[in-house]
Design a protein that fits this description.
A hairpin with a 2-residue loop joins strand 3 and strand 4. The longest helix has 47 residues. The chain is an alpha+beta fold and 329 residues long. The protein has two domains: 197 residues, Jelly Rolls; 102 residues, Homeodomain-like (Arc Repressor Mutant, subunit A, Orthogonal Bundle). The protein is 47% helix and 22% strand. The protein contains eleven helices and twelve strands. The strands form two sheets. Strands 1-3-4-11-6-9-12 form a seven-stranded antiparallel beta sheet, with helices on both faces. Helix 4 packs antiparallel against helix 5, helix 5 packs across helix 6 and helix 6 crosses helix 7.
Length: 329
């Protein structure tokens, strides 16, 4: 049976489930974020969840039997905002999988996960116990912009800033849960400050590694595009396959650079190649032939893009180039 109660003057919830999985799924989904759950022995399942609010931050204590929590695509699609979840392995370890990344979080460690992708969180022990800190990603993102690039990770929660955060997450409900709203909100902000400190080194190190990886990918992509610039069949699918990455990651790489999109970049390179041929004194190719050679469907389309990019039509550019050549000669 499921029980829920709120303490007087304090944002507090308590749930208990015995032999029923659906109420436990509803409780966890309500307190953390939507999930589906499964257990090998649902009729013997026991779970207890307590949750306290500290402004933007909530802290939960969760004890249960063996269980798996699964985030599906429909859960992610329904989210109103992205959540950062910190699960402290207080008594038993747990496993986590997301986007091909498999992690194990052992005692005195903390799993940091984001709600933006499907995932599986598994507790296999007969008795499981953990503290969970729930934070809207927006509260951290302003101070750790590279958090957007970080997948799930495990940090040390036995010492240092991670250990202090673990201690505060366990002690705050007992020390200040019954305090006034402004006090609890201030404690919540302090927890976020400490979270940022605990993540800074890991996020900075990850961002540096990712920057090197991104630059290597971009160099390989650029080389492939330049080799196949005249191929009218050049496509995102073909580029991604040739460079060993997904189409989505290919587009993300260009978006992260803050410049033109992939297709804008390809078009600009083609326009530059066409312009170079228009400037060659001895070349007599028709403008329509040059346009087709560099992947443009017709001369009108080519002229429109050329003028928008260079400020003159292809014909005007060719005429000006020939005049310069005559004067120079």
């Amino acid at each position: 049976m499921l029980h829920c109660k709120s303490g007087e003057g304090v944002m507090f919830q308590e749930y208990a489930a015995r032999g029923q999985m659906e109420p436990w799924q509803d409780a966890v989904s309500n307190v953390l974020f939507p999930v589906d759950i499964a257990s090998d022995q649902p009729s013997d399942f026991n779970g207890r969840l307590r949750s306290w609010d500290f402004g933007d931050v909530s802290i939960s204590y969760i004890a249960s039997g063996p269980v798996a929590y699964r985030r599906e695509r429909h859960h992610v699609a329904a989210d109103e905002e992205e959540i950062l979840l910190l699960s402290f392995a207080t008594r038993s370890e747990f496993a986590y999988s997301q986007d091909g990344l498999d992690l194990v979080c052992r005692r005195n460690q903390c799993l940091v996960e984001r709600s933006h992708r499907p995932s599986i969180f598994t507790q296999a022990d007969a008795v499981n116990e953990m503290w969970v800190m729930r934070v809207p990603l927006r509260t951290v993102k302003a101070r750790l912009r590279a958090i957007d690039l970080v997948p799930a990770l495990v940090i040390d929660a036995g010492q240092g800033a991670g250990g202090l955060l673990h201690d505060m997450a366990r002690l705050a409900p007992h020390r200040v849960a019954t305090a006034r709203d402004n006090v609890r909100t201030t404690v919540g902000r302090t927890l976020i400050d400490l979270l940022v400190v605990a993540l800074e080194d890991q996020v900075r190190s990850f961002d540096q590694r990712q920057s090197s990886v991104r630059q290597a990918h971009l160099a390989r992509i650029e080389a492939h595009i330049r080799r196949h610039l005249s191929d009218p069949g050049l496509s995102a699918t073909g580029i991604a396959a040739a460079c060993g990455i997904s189409v989505r990651y290919l587009h993300d790489l260009f978006a992260e650079e803050g410049g033109p999109s992939l297709f804008q970049w390809v078009r600009e390179r083609r326009l530059e190649a066409a312009r170079a041929q228009l400037e060659e004194p001895g070349r007599g190719d028709a403008i329509a032939d040059i346009a087709l050679r560099w992947g443009f469907g017709d001369q009108a389309q080519f002229s429109r893009h050329f003028r928008r990019h260079f400020g003159v039509t292809p014909r005007e550019h060719r005429t000006a180039a020939r005049l310069r050549a005559v004067k120079a000669g």
